[in-house]
User: What shape does this take?
Amino acid sequence: MGFNLGAKFKRDTLKALPQAIVAGVPILVLIGLAVSVVAVVVARFASSGETPETLVLGFSVGGMAEMTLTAQALGHNAALVAGFHAIRALSVNLFAGPLWTRLSRLPCFQDPRSQRPS
Assistant: This one.
């Protein structure tokens, strides 16, 4: 599968990768910080007694298997982390299509080049 994906790259795509990395890394760091702050706040005010580390793993963006195994290896509640990721995967798969359908109708998401002159 990796070879098949790699064979589809064009020279222009490869030339644009450094710009995408420069833009993507700060966004990834900001998402990680935001998720960590939210997890710590929830751990502070939740009555469940879960540690902030467990909630950071549960809230973080990543694969269910990786985060669950990380929680298990660190001695945290792996079932809770798996549950968070299962709910996230289910909600994204259920709501991404309808949300995109509605958002794509907004003028700010329209491509000005594709609009015909009136």
